[in-house]
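User: Okay, second chain of the day. Same drill as before: sequence in, structure tokens out.
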Amino acid sequence: MKMNIIKKLPSTEEIIQRFPLSEKACEQIEKDKQEIKDILAGRDGRIFLVVGPCSAWPMEATLEYAKRLKKLSEEVGDKIKLILRVYIQKPRTRKGWTGPAIQPDPFSSPDIEEGITYCRKLMVKAIELGMPIADEALFTHNAKGFLELLSWVAIGARSSEDQEHRIFASAIDAAVGMKNPTYGALDIAVNSIVAAQGSHTAVFDGNQVETSGNDYAHLVLRGGVDGPNYHIEHIIQAKNLMEEHNVKNPSVVIDASHDNCRISGKKTLERQIQVVHEVVSNLKDFPELRSIVKGFMIESFLKDGNQSVNVDKPEEIDLDGMSITDPCLGWEKTEKLIRELATKL
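Assistant: Same drill. Structure tokens below.
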């Protein structure tokens, strides 16, 4: 193969031993995973909200966000289950920073050993603060050390058609949100759910295995190249497709970001607020769809907007909670939105 070996990485077990979870945190993860499954199955009448930075960097600002979200969750938890986005790997349409798991210092060369250390440490700290966490399963081969920490998992728009990711989703013991592809096709997205809910024979860690299937694989509507897909007609289409394919626990989560918040091709961060309010308002007119819409995804950080990384001027970067990838809602707007959402449910 055309590659150069840079260095031997530490084993996953070594990384886990460096940053172990307390027994209380392990129990909390299992509780959080079950509560999310109960929401998807209709046993719990709340919705869940996957909210947080587009990218989990830098650590200090991400943990400050986690502390604020934990405090807010204690106030609105009877209506909304808040789940912290801790996205450590970033899919890129072309090229770009691929997240702290690969390059924990955007101003230095990629260092996966340091990245693994950074991400495990951050995730453990966030969980020990009391927050359930979510991440996107971008690379399936290095999931150990992270996957067991997650209460909710996303399969992204660029991955949901991939057979390996579908099989991976079918083996996960947490609810998995399957995003529609970037071109927006809902039938393909539902195919992904059907595949993830089924059993598969595959190779894991050198063993032939049979996956159990994930009854809590569900649909995430994130818009597509032709525009948003969070409107009532899209939810109805998704509902009909899931019924046609006998999907278990049929559920839809609305991603208020990505192509659902673009105006004239440009992502507008405050559009996320409008998307959430519009969906909630529309559901009042279609109460039969409330049972299928189980939550939202929002990209949010301490400060509004985003910033570019100038590798030649690291001193210019804002380390106090402004995204270096997609634009995010600032904390004040996020808190206001969540409080408003709680009063409408």
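The chain has one domain: 12-344.

User: Thanks, on to the next one.
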